[in-house]
Amino acid sequence: MSSLSLILKPLSIPTFISDNPNIKTFIFQRNIPPPCKSHCHTERGHQFDVGDTFFRSESATARDLGVLSAALYRNTTGSLRVLDAMCGCGIRSLRYLAEAEADFVVANDANENTRDIILGNLSRVASGSEEGKRWEVNHLPATRLLAECYLRKDYFDLIDVDSFGSGSSYLRVALDAVKLGGLLYITSTDGLSSGGHRPQQSLAAYGAYVRPLPYSNEIGLRMLIGGAVREASVLGYHVVPLFSYYSYHGPVFRVLLQVKRGKSLSSRYYGFISYCNRCGNTRAFSWNELGEISCPCSTNVKRSIVVSGPLWTGPLHSAPHLTEMMSLADQWGWFGDEEGKNLEKLLKQMIDESDPKLPVGYLNADEIASRAKLNLPPLSVIMNSLHEGGYAVSRSHIAPNAIKTDCPMVVCVKIVKHLQQAAEMSSCH
Ligand SMILES: C[S@@+](CC[C@H](N)C(=O)[O-])C[C@H]1O[C@@H](n2cnc3c(N)ncnc32)[C@H](O)[C@@H]1O
């Protein structure tokens, strides 16, 4: 220990910050949370330092969703070991420890320069210390860390992979290292592939040939889940999406999957999606029907139908899981402020989207308007009419200016025209 730190020892001033590594060690050994040093942020009441690490405050919602699910998992199973494979400044690890009360968290980031920032932030969790073995910090490439965990049979309840790009190269190793019944929180930021602009890339990453469809951001989620379904199936597992979340900041596609024993490559929820440019009809179908793709409206199938797949065609969320997330967030008092209201709205929309009658995709208001050749009334008015007509309908959390419905586009266009006529007639009277 340096003479300087010896001099400072009796003072043990928590507000003292020094670049001298000996003094820093002294502070950590006493488990006194050092104050935030630079680039301070606060999220859900936790103050933390981001330094020069990669951090986006816009990802707070994705972190909220992960923490709620982790806490629910812990409440159900009684334990929670988390591997935060790409932790940046360690904010997720901190929140899994403090809010979800994880028993143990591995905070990993390949970039060694993040170490001091992560250590500083995790030491803010009152009962945590590296020595106390409630958390540890690593700097390995995520694939290597996950493979080593698997080889040691050190399985985790929750593996969070907050990667850049398609994220597909982490799927197999993450599936290997997660417990059966455990959770995988995976990411893609590959908006070009979901838009259908790089079908070769989506084929390489997820085994799905994706072409441009009007609900590309939902396709991004289905592509990611489909890739996980395929990888899980190789290992004899299947995955169930507990929620799927799209954020236009990035864009970022995030999916929380529960991993279970038994294969799931059945045609029920894994197949192809076709969209007819002529009538706007979307259809999900299995590989058995690949030879007979058609649309009732179409005379020239080849020209007017776009097909993508294979992808996940099943539910994007589990409504019971989302309902539990809602009540936990409410119990934690999260819905009080502006940010909380947005989260509450998001969870409600996701629950509405989980109606099993709702098909794949959504109808964009602009597309309905251009097919009807008129300005649309508010979406809430259209949704009421669709409800009255006996159709299932909800908003989409993915596209604010769209609706999900089992009403075919042609019928929807007729309803909109009818609404317009009714509005014109009532204005004449
Ligand atoms: C999107 S950021 C993580 C943000 C963080 N999870 C959060 O919520 O603030 C991705 C992080 O992964 C790290 N990274 C990139 N490639 C990696 C790899 N192959 N293995 C582990 N970490 C990696 C980067 O250094 C970066 O900090």
UniProtKB/TrEMBL annotation:
Listed Gene3D superfamilies: N2,N2-dimethylguanosine tRNA methyltransferase, C-terminal domain, Vaccinia Virus protein VP39
GO CC term, one of those recorded: nucleus
Pfam families reported for this sequence: TRM
SUPFAM superfamilies, alphabetized: S-adenosyl-L-methionine-dependent methyltransferases (SSF53335)
EC category: transferase
Keywords of the record: Methyltransferase, RNA-binding, S-adenosyl-L-methionine, Transferase, tRNA processing, tRNA-binding
InterPro entries per record: SAM-dependent_MTases_sf, Trm1, tRNA_met_Trm1_C
Top-level taxonomic group: Eukaryota
Tagged with keyword Protease: no
Swiss-Prot/TrEMBL catalytic activity: guanosine(26) in tRNA + 2 S-adenosyl-L-methionine = N(2)-dimethylguanosine(26) in tRNA + 2 S-adenosyl-L-homocysteine + 2 H(+)
One MF annotation (Gene Ontology) recorded for this entry: tRNA (guanine(26)-N2)-dimethyltransferase activity
Record-listed E.C. numbers: 2.1.1.216
GO BP annotation list: tRNA N2-guanine methylation
Homology family: Belongs to the class I-like SAM-binding methyltransferase superfamily. Trm1 family.
Name the UniProt record assigns to this protein: tRNA (guanine(26)-N(2))-dimethyltransferase
Source organism: Solanum lycopersicum
